[in-house]
Amino acid sequence: MGKLFAAIDDDLRAFITAQRMFFVATAPLSADGHVNLSPKGLDSFRVLGPTTVAYLDLTGSGVETIAHLRENGRLTVMFCAFEGRPRIVRLQGRGRVVTPTDAEWAELSGHFPAMPGVRSVIVLDADRISDSCGYGVPRYEFVGDREQLPAWAEKKGPDGVKEYQARKNAASIDGLPGLG
Q1: CA contacts within 13 A on the Cβ side of 20
Q2: Domains parsed from the chain with CATH numbers
Q3: Over 80: is that where the pLDDT of 12 sits?
């Protein structure tokens, strides 16, 4: 049923690219800290190499992924087939945060469409790539992307988004440093 891969081959790349949603999981080192699991979408994921992937991180109400990655780097990205043959793919490894002030920003952000409210690119260097059957995942039909998040950021404007980030993204729910 499940299989380990040394790298993202053409079949895995095609599967990943076809998915309209993915999930990101991180956790702090503290046993008392909260595990974070976030759904993502909006054409924000790219395969950059055989074991390297990245996604565009948009401003949101929390900053858990950034805080956890800066503390310990552990990251899992999961894709589920909601259409077609059942399959789950997990990419596990070390993640890092690249912000607009970092030297890599121009090169990495160029892989993605321009979107308002971008706060970082999250890069994952996967050391474990696996799939499993996905037989228990229900089938859903894709209707369309939700446009509320980009519209919210567009309405706030760059200064409004920065002010929001300063208020809401300075620390994780467990008090770990976020943005700033």
Answers
A1: 10
A2: 3-168 (2.30.110.10)
A3: yes
